[in-house]
Structures are given as structure tokens and as C-alpha cells.
Design goal:
Layout (H helix, E strand, L loop, with lengths): L9 E11 L4 E4 L1 H10 L6 E2 L6 E5 L8 E5 L4 E5 L2 H14 L15 E10 L5 E7 L7 H13 L4 E5 L1 E2 L2 E2 L8 H6 L1 E2 L18 E2 L4 H13 L3 E8 L4 H6 L28 H18 L4 E5 L6 H4 L2 H9 L5 H18 L3 E5 H5 L8 E3 L4 H9 L4 E3 L2 H4 L21 H5 L10 H5 L1 E8 L7 H8 L2 H11 L7 H15 L29 H11 L11
Parallel strand pairs: 2-3, 2-4, 4-6, 8-9, 8-19, 9-14, 14-15, 15-16, 16-17, 18-19
Antiparallel strand pairs: 1-7, 5-6, 5-7, 10-11, 12-13
Helix pairs in contact: 1-2, 3-5, 5-7, 7-10
Bound molecules: acetamide.
Acetamide binds next to loops.
Length: 544
Amino acid sequence: MDDLLPRPRIADSAPGSFEFAPGAAISGTAELVDAVRLALAVLDLRPAEAGAAVSVEHDAGLGAEAYAIAITSEAVRITAGDRAGAFYAGQTLRQLMPAEAFRSTALPGTSWTVPCGRVEDAPEFSWRGAHMDIARNFLPKREVLRLIDLLALHKLNRLHLHLVDDQGWRVESRAFPRLHEVGSHRAQTTTSFFGEEPTFDGVPHGGYYTLTDLAEIAAYARARAVTVVPEIDVPGHASAILAAYPSLGAKPDETYHVLDRWGISPAILSPLPPTVEFLTTVFDEIIKALGDVPYFHLGGDECVLDDWATSAEISAYQAELGLEAPADLHAWFLRRLADVLAERGIRAVVWDEAFVSGMLRQDTVVMPWRGEAVGRRAAAAGHDVVATPVFPMYFDYAEASSAEEPVGIGDALTVADVAAFAPAPAEWTPEERARMLGAQFQLWSERIPDGRTLDYRAWPRGCAAAEITWTGGPAEPGFLPRLDAHLVRLDAFGVEYRPPAGPRPWQRGGTGWRRHRPGVVPVHDVMKHLDEMTHSADSTRPSM
Ligand code: ACM
């Protein structure tokens, strides 16, 4: 019981063990039986009427996502507060078995034993998330489904899908098909680092999910207690949308292209009513595909407002609304879209620029990527907050400042850094702490071209993120030894994580485009700069 990850609230072992037999019976409340069977799919448990040695029942005394397991040599009795709790009880039992439980099928000769004892468990935070940027580099549906499986086995429960950026639009639109026909691909991709002579790979890149793919992803996630949070990032980061529909731009006569390089672009949507109408239609398509959508992310980050300031039509609209500056119009626009979502019973989520510009609905959730100080201000203003600070939650930073690493945007951000993080700092007031929903790690994908690199960036830092969001953080000192035992499970699953001692020979950066530049962009310097940005008068101006 000592190697469970994330660490349960109580896990006491007793002498003896219980042995599962593949195909054994499980009885109890049907919905909960289904959840346990899914978590323990490798065992192919069969639902039984009643009285099976393995059982699961609802316990109204347990909260959301909570569960308890009592294991004797004769029986495994699970109680759960809800379906997610039952699923997590199954995940805990899977971790108590040999690591073979993480293979795709039961290998003959495995002894599926779990130690006798009891586990009582519940999460500290309700938002335990991962963000996946499929805009910069598209990853096919199978990678999304696989990431959902990996989140689920770590009891992570949110998948934030960054579905559009300057470099690509990633979802079908039946109402506005040029979005996926034109916006979803580019002719080539840059291979150079900031400040270097630009070079390109000369290889077309693209892809998008159909609305039916999105429905499948959401249903697959929901079954595994993961909520998909779609993000349509507006009004900036708009080159792909404007390549498809230039008339929505602040400069409607401009020709836009899906960008083939990284960084912040000045391309911005117009805030005028036709844009709101267009986005409402697109949001509705996505909401309908996803089904149950509690949260919808509007982005709002890194907007260059120059084209708003120089447009007579937009300036006149700003004046008509009684707003003083383009920054106010930025706030107004995001508020307008959050109202559209609220009419559909959905809460908006935004990056912290939208909070700083100061016109949010009270129920809007803020993601303070530029640091703890702006997160605390949002919490003090009564917003629910999800901690997403660059340090230590941007996993596009390399784990070591070393030429052996594959290229990262900067360095260094280690497993220990993530493990030491507490999303709700002790010095915050109880009211501020109560606003902290949890935390999520970001997989910005400029330098994540494929699933193998995604594995390397996500794990084992994602294991530490699971630990601190489940337990509240920081992780206790036994976390790193416990992680070593957990990595054997990831080996069995087939995860190409970054080994604690450093990359394997074939995971190194080499001498080509994948070469890391140690020390060029130190993450702590970036954090200092971003924190200063959140205090500046024009906080919507791009930061890096
Ligand atoms: C962000 O990193 N622009 C949210």
C-alpha cells in the first residue's frame, strides 16, 4: 500500500492478500460496477446479481470522487460517493496489483493479488487537470484518447483542449467549413529557435477532429471521470480563423495565413457584433458535440490591440459602448461571450489577462498563468481560480538546463519543482484559499511534434501534478521514492516518460532542430517578467 500514487488519505495494510481471477464476478450498484470494471478492464470482471466476492456500493456519506476499499482474504468491498469514486477505487486496486495490470491485456501466469487492508480516500482539489495544445502541432485522436487513459490512472479529471491558435484550427465546423478546410493546415513549420535565422522544415502540417470525433473524445473521457474543457482562444491568436474568414478581422481587407512560425501575432478578431454571432454559432456546434459542457475556455491571452485602436469602426463601437480604451473593449468582448455561455448554463474560463482587464462575470473561472500574485488577486475578487503558473506548470520547459535535453522553450522545470508546489498557498486568507479549485499542467506544443515527445514532456512531471492536486500539495518527502515504483507501471503501460536520470540516448536533442539551448530562456526570469506584466496599466499587451 506504500507505493500508491497519488497518495491516498489513509492506506493501511494487514496480513494476507486477496487474489482476483480474470473473469471473476463483481456485484453492486450497476453504474458503480461499470466504473470499477472499466478501471480494471485488464481483468475482464463480469457483472453478477449479488453476493460476489468483489462488490461496490454507493455510500451517501462519502463526497464527490471519494471512495473506501476494505480488502480481506475473502472479499473486496468498495464503497463510493459517486461513479468517479468507484472508478478511482478501481484505479487504486489496479495499482495494488502487479504492474502487469497496466498492460493492455492480462498475461497468463500473473498472480493478480492485492494486499489485505483498507483505503479511505478523497481528493483535496476538484480541478486536477492537463492542457493539451493541438493547435501548434496537431496530434491525432488516438493520442487524445491515450492521454485520457493516462490522466485517469493518475486520478486527474480535466482535459483542457486548446483547439485553435495562430498555427491551426482543429475542429470541424459545418456552419463555417472554411475553418477546418483552410484553417487546419499550413505549408511548413519553423525549425529555428527565437532570435535565430528563421529555418523551415518544408513539410505540410495539419489535421482536425470532426464533430463526431469530439463527441467520441468527450464520451470516452466522461466514462473515465475526465471532463473535457474546450478552448476557443479569442480575440487574439486569430491567424487561422482569419485565414479562413478574413472579414472577421480588425483589418478585414488584410490577407491572413495560418502561421508557420511561433510567437505572438498581431492578428486579432474584430469585437463587432458579427464576430459574436459567428462565435456563438461555432460554440454551439462544439457544445452540442461534446454533450455535457460545464466549462468553456475563451482564451483572452496575449492580445495585440493595435488594430482595434487604429480602426475607425471599432473605435466608434468602443465609444458607443461608453468604453475608454481598447483594453476595456477586450474585457467587454470576453464578458459578452461569457454571457452567451451563461445563457447555455456554461461557465466561462479565461487566462488571467481577461481578469486584469476587469469586467468578468463573477462566475468566470480564472487561469493565472502569469503567476501566483495575479491568481491571488482573482481569488480575492471572488473568482474561482485554477493554478496554471508557467513555473512549475508549463511542461514545455525542459527538465534540465542541459544540451542533452530535447528542445524546450526554456529551462528548467523539474519533477521536484512540481512536487513542491501547493496551489493554495498557506499565506492566502481562508476565503482566497477556498476559491482555489486546483491546478493543471500545460503541454504547449510548439516543440511537441508527436506522441512520443508528449510522453516525455508529460511524465513523470504529470505524476507530481496528480500528487499535489489530489493531496493539496506540496508532496511529502516520500514522493520521489514512491515515483520510482510508479514508473514501473508506466513502463508496463508503454509510456516513454523522461527517466529521472535524464533522457535515454534516443530521447536526446541531438544536433539538429531538436537541439536544446541550455540557459537561453531561464524560467525564473520569465516568471519575474510575467509577474511585472500583471501590474502594468495595459496588462493586455503581449508579454513575450
Ligand atoms: C499563455 O501562455 N499565453 C496562456
